[in-house]
């Protein structure tokens, strides 16, 4: 149990197609002994998709959680002053969330959780999942790769022939990335080859 007692804020944003992989990775964090606080973007909190119903997703998160779900900016803000978490993981991290994070915009519970946590100089792990990672968002990913206390789950192009700009993290590496981030290290290689 390499993460025994580690308090992890698990931030989920609206890359709906990767949610199943993320939930499996969260289960692995629990098996490693982590204590999970789910934090939802507005979209994940409120919008049913073809991949899941919000009610079902929340029920699964409640099973995995050690605290109640955070789904509002006022509820996410105390993470900083209360020093409530050891680590925040944003996965899946949409291009929209990455862009806002890189540019200091805090207009969702997800972004407030990251901002509040970073004020304590503690690690944040990003699990990218965006169709424009090698397009418009490449600049934002580059900024975050060089930002203090920000670490990335290794990622790759998920479908280079049909979606050349699309990037997705290898969510199965979430626990290993978290362990490295808690030691102040970026797991390597961060750029993975084709599956």
Descriptive tags:
single chain; 195 residues; alpha/beta; Rossmann fold; 7-stranded mixed sheet; globular
Description of the structure:
By secondary structure, this protein is α/β, with parallel strands linked by helices. The protein has a single domain, classed as Flavin prenyltransferase-like (Rossmann fold), CATH 3.40.50.1950. 35% of the residues lie in helices and 18% in strands. The chain contains eight helices and seven strands. β1, α1 (19-31) and β2 (35-40) form a beta-alpha-beta unit. α5 (95-102) packs across α7 (138-145). The chain is globular and about 45 Å long.
Task: Report on the biggest sheet.
Answer: 7 strands, mixed
What fraction strand?
Answer: 15-25%
CATH architecture group name: 3-Layer(aba) Sandwich
CATH topology-level name: Rossmann fold
Global mean pLDDT: 96
Structural class from helices and strands?
Answer: alpha/beta
What's the number of helices?
A: 8
Helix fraction? Answer: 25-40%
For the secondary structure, the number of strands is: 7
Give the tally of structural domains. Answer: 1
- Based on CA atoms alone, the radius of gyration comes out at 15 Å
Question: What is the name of the CATH superfamily?
Answer: Flavin prenyltransferase-like
What is the straight-line distance between the termini?
A: 28 Å
Q: Flag low-confidence runs.
A: none
Could you name the CATH class? Answer: Alpha Beta
- What's the overall geometry? globular
The ordered string of helix (H) and strand (E) elements is EHEHHHEHHEHEEEH
């Amino acid at each position: 149990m390499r993460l025994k007692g580690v308090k992890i804020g698990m931030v989920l944003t609206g890359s709906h197609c990767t949610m199943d992989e993320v939930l499996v990775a969260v289960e692995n964090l629990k098996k490693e002994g982590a204590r999970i606080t789910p934090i939802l973007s507005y979209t994940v909190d409120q919008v049913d998709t073809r991949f899941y119903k919000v009610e079902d997703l929340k029920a699964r998160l409640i099973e995995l959680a050690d605290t109640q779900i955070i789904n509002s900016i006022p509820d996410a803000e105390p993470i900083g002053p209360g020093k409530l978490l050891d680590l925040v993981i944003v996965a899946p991290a949409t291009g929209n969330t990455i862009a806002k994070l890189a540019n200091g915009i805090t207009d969702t519970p997800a972004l407030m959780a990251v901002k509040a946590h970073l004020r304590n100089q503690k690690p944040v792990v990003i699990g990218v999942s965006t169709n424009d990672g090698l397009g418009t968002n490449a600049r934002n990913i580059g900024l975050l790769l060089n930002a203090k206390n920000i670490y990335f789950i290794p990622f790759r192009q998920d479908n280079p022939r049909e979606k050349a700009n699309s990037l997705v993290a290898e969510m199965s590496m979430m626990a290993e990335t978290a362990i490295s981030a808690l030691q102040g290290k970026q797991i390597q290689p961060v750029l993975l080859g084709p599956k």
